[in-house]
């Protein structure tokens, strides 16, 4: 009899998102306070379990110790790229043909882009651009060639059209051109655009006429910047840009490892887009296309609409406040999940502002 009571109580203290069970209701409340479960987390299409990242969801479905029922269904009706569950094996084949993208066009256009400077930053056709992707290729500076210096930069729009591309003349002498991966030779940089000029062009295009201090996440003219490891790229270009306008695939929680470390762009492209990049000489255009496709895929996800979707929104700051402990302990797990909010900005919210 005692066992049944304890089992029932434990079941009542089961998280409605990740299904963890707790002996005491106060432990469940603390879990919800720190886990930031929300409708924006990657979710298993079969058992509806919430996962912190797509990597965690992948392990749940096809990892070393998957949930067997979910694995069986996923093996016949699950997309290995977006991890969605389809209605039938036929629907899966149709879906996966669309879901697996190709990098062929990126490679071809990238080769054409190698021909020289391409500058459409002041072209009227780019004025309506709201999202751009940036990538750089680095050569080595310093006595041992380990200091990263930007030698080539590319900026594209959401339709993968080149807005700006140029070789960049670094401020410091180049001691290692890293030709095997960059394909850059000394003569390419001899008459290249100076770093200061590149910096100004990119900064002006991103801000789009809006003062830096005035840039805000919604309703402004500044453009969303997409990339992978953008802190490094922007630092090498000596460009400053507000974090609220940056979408970095290296830092986006759903695209990170279960250990909360960043995945490489090469891995993300292969795992979630279905094609390979960076197989030989690397082109920044190819990296731009990959990050833009990843961003568009994440942005296109359909999640529950919430008036205030972030835990940091003023309206949500007291959702799990300690002074509400007694009230929270009287809530069901489902009610707690309803009150919980995400601790990161989900990119699906960008689609609602466009």
From TrEMBL:
Alphabetic keyword roster: Exonuclease, Hydrolase, Metal-binding, Nuclease, Nucleus, Zinc, Zinc-finger
GO function term, MF aspect, one: nucleic acid binding
Coiled coil: none
CDD domains linked: REX4_like (cd06144)
A GO cellular-component term linked to this record: nucleus
Localization of this protein: Nucleus
Residues of the C2H2-type domain: 13-42
SUPFAM superfamilies in UniProt: Ribonuclease H-like
GO terms classed as biological process: rRNA processing
Domain of life: Eukaryota
Family: Belongs to the REXO4 family.
Protein name as catalogued: RNA exonuclease 4
């Amino acid at each position: 009899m005692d066992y049944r009571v304890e089992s029932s109580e434990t079941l009542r203290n089961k998280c409605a998102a990740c299904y963890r069970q707790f002996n005491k209701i106060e432990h469940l409340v603390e879990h919800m306070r720190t886990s930031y479960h929300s409708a924006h987390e990657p979710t298993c299409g079969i058992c509806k379990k919430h996962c912190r990242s797509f990597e965690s969801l992948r392990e749940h479905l096809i990892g070393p110790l998957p949930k067997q029922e979910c694995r069986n269904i996923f093996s016949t009706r699950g997309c290995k790229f977006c991890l969605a569950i389809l209605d039938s094996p036929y629907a899966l084949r149709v879906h996966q043909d669309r879901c697996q993208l190709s990098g062929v066009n990126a490679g071809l256009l990238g080769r054409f882009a190698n021909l020289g400077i391409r500058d459409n930053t002041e072209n009227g056709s780019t004025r309506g651009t709201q999202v751009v992707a940036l990538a750089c290729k680095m050569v080595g500076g310093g006595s041992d060639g380990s200091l990263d210096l930007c030698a080539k930069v590319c900026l594209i729009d959401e339709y993968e059209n080149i807005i700006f591309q140029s070789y960049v003349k670094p401020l410091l002498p180049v001691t290692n051109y890293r030709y095997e991966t960059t394909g850059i030779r000394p003569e390419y940089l001899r008459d290249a655009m100076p770093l200061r000029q590149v910096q100004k062009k990119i900064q002006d295009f991103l801000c789009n006429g809006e003062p830096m201090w005035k840039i805000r996440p919604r309703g402004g003219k500044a453009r969303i910047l997409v990339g992978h490891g953008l802190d490094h790229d922007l630092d090498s270009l000596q460009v400053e840009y507000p974090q609220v306008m940056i979408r970095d695939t290296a830092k986006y929680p759903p695209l990170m490892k279960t250990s909360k470390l960043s995945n490489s762009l090469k891995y993300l492209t292969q795992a979630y887009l279905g094609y390979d990049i960076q197989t030989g000489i690397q082109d920044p255009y190819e990296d731009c296309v990959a990050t833009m496709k990843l961003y568009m895929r994440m942005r296109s996800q359909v999640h529950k609409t919430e008036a205030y979707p972030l835990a940091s929104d003023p309206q949500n700051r007291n959702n799990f406040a300690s002074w509400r402990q007694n009230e929270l302990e009287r809530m069901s797990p489902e009610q707690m999940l309803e009150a919980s909010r995400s601790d990161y900005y989900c990119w699906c919210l960008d689609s609602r502002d466009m």
